[in-house]
């Protein structure tokens, strides 16, 4: 079976069984990720994420507070949604860039870089102490 757009429908000839319970989200929880500062005044710092909504800014009211004065008080949020991790600019003065592209709202993938003011934050899986496969570089042999 096909249609004019080249799509092909598949018809099942027998029941597949009872509907399975599917996970509510096809991705790991936001709490399994961190933001690693790769540029700006807080370079080298790591911010573990927690909960399903994280607010980032220059204000003490933010969940993650950056010392970069070019970051707005309430700059952006990252929210766990059924579709994935949604980054939203919260009306910041200098805007938000995701992998170099200005965004107001976009899905965030692991390894992506967020630029807020003069700061660059990498969204990555949390590094676990004692798991060398997650370290950036192996220690030199002695």
Structural class, from secondary structure content?
A: mainly beta
**Beta-strand content:** 35-45%
Q: What is the radius of gyration?
A: 20 Å
- Number of helical segments with 4 or more residues: 0
What best-fitting shape do the alpha-carbon axes yield? Answer: globular
Beta strand count: 11
Side-by-side strand order of the widest sheet: 2-1-11-10-7-8
Order of helices and strands: EEEEEEEEEEE
Distance between the termini: 65 Å
Unreliable stretches: 1-5, 7-14, 19-23, 131-135
Largest sheet: 6 strands, antiparallel
- Roughly what percent helix? under 10%
Overall average residue pLDDT: 82
Main features:
single chain; 142 residues; mainly beta; six-stranded antiparallel beta sheet; five-stranded mixed beta sheet; 35% strand; globular; disordered N terminus
Quick structural overview:
With 142 residues, the protein is an all-beta fold. The chain has strands spanning 33-39, 46-48, 53-57, 64-65, 76-81, 84-89, 96-98, 101-103, 105-108, 113-116, 119-125.
Describe this protein's structure.
- It is a single chain.
- With 142 residues, the chain is mainly β.
- Helix content is 0%, strand content 35%.
- Strand 1 and strand 2 form a beta hairpin.
- The N and C termini lie far apart (65 Å).
- The N terminus is likely disordered.
């Amino acid at each position: 079976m096909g249609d004019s757009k080249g799509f092909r429908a598949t018809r099942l000839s027998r029941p597949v069984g009872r509907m399975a319970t599917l996970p509510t989200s096809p991705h790991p929880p936001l709490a399994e990720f961190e933001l690693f500062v790769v540029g700006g005044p807080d370079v080298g710092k790591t911010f573990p994420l927690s909960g399903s909504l994280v607010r980032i800014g220059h204000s003490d009211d933010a969940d993650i507070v950056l010392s970069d004065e070019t970051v707005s008080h309430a700059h952006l949020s990252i929210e766990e949604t059924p579709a994935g991790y949604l980054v939203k600019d919260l009306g910041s003065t200098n805007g938000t860039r995701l992998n170099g592209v200005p965004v107001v709202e976009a899905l965030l993938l692991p390894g992506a870089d967020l630029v807020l003011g003069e700061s660059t934050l990498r969204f990555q899986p949390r590094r676990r102490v004692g798991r060398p496969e997650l370290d950036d570089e192996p220690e030199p042999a002695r």
